Amino acid sequence: MCRWLAYAGEPLQPSTLILETKHSLVAQSLNSPLGFETVNGDGFGVGWYGKDAAPGTPPAMFHSIEPAWHDENLRELTQAIESPLFLAHVRAAAAPPIQQTNCHPFRHGHWLFMHNGGLAHFSRLRRDLMLAVDPELFPHIRGTTDSEVLFHLAVTYGLQEDPIRGLGRAIRHVEKTADGFGIRDVVQGTFAVSDGRTLWAFRYSTVGRSRTLFHSADMATLQETYPHNEKLHRFGAKARVVVSEPLSDLPGAFIEVPESTVTVLDPDDFHTEPFLAD
After folding, report:
1. Residue 10 is part of a domain; what is its CATH number?
2. What is the Cα Rg of the chain in Å?
3. For 101, which of 143, 174, 187, 192 could close a Cys bridge (C-beta 3.0–4.6 Å)?
4. CB 59 within 8 A of CB 107
5. Structural domain of 219
6. Number of domains forming the structure of the chain
7. Is residue 185 left, alpha or beta, with left meaning phi > 0 and alpha meaning psi from -120 to 50?
8. CA–CA distance from 239 to each of 8, 12, 52, 228, 247 (Å)?
């Protein structure tokens, strides 16, 4: 469906990961070996938090319907800013049209959300799912994607108080609604959520065959293992990235996130825990 990455750590130019690695996000937009689609050219988006922004400050965003490899503004922008936490996404449209309001990440207040995957038979479920969204949130749904509806459902179910529980409750609501239509295997995906301080990255599907997801290994360990790799020494000790597929071929650099798991990164901790695991 799509490819994405999320970074948390010391302030970094987003271009370092989006453009400059061997298998960068832009490279994956042209050729994604692990993706459901090889080419992801139906628009892209970047959302980032300022390096000196106060807690609770809304992130900035840039969306375009251009293919990521074709947009000169993407290179200019990602080289001009530094951010301690940013999300980036390249899109392969399934059914919703190619338009800026359908590009990820999505924003609500100081929260960002993005998704790779889909909700099966969303056109049949769309009305019921949208009616379950808090009426105060409903006007903020600007596009036509299942991902944006799921995000607002998660906010409705308490994502801002507890992101893991909020997204979990939203997904269970989708599955229950789909059961009423006789739709099986409805949720497929990997998801990223952030409030500007913490990053939550989820891998989950109803049938346990989710899209790929990886997190980077501990940076200090990598730098010690590969002392002559100059690119690794551009990163700070707290740097971590979560990606749809590895950004390099360096052995040990990326670790696969298990099924039904959430990876949590904040300035003081990194851990994984089960997510909706039966």
Report:
1. 3.60.20.10
2. 18
3. 143
4. yes
5. 2-114+189-274
6. 1
7. left
8. 6, 9, 17, 18, 14
